Structure prediction request, 113 residues.
Amino acid sequence: MDKQLDVLQGTLDMLILKAVSLGPLHGYGILFRIQQISRDRLEIQQGSLYPALYRLEHQGWIASEWGESENNRKAKYYRLAAAGKRRLQSETEKWNRMAEVIAGILHTTPEEV
Prediction:
């Protein structure tokens, strides 16, 4: 599948939490990580990312500290907080249950109704 998919509303927070659960990242690194682990099928826009990072940090799900990026620039690095780890687990479970329900609906045949 070569075409990039739109991120479903409400999933950006979960994707960010997953990305930073794999290791601390600066903003651009988070964008790249999501694109990388989706095998280039998802691309998050910077205009969506930074408000989400602010919101997640405000909620205590991620923490940040200043550091230097790979190209020696000042960058804010984000890491998963304990509350974020619990939130990611909860959101992952809800996502998997919802995906299972929707898959069941989509696979329903006329004979099963």
Notes: The first strand starts at residue 25 and ends at 26. The chain has one domain: 12-112. The chain has a mean pLDDT of 92.
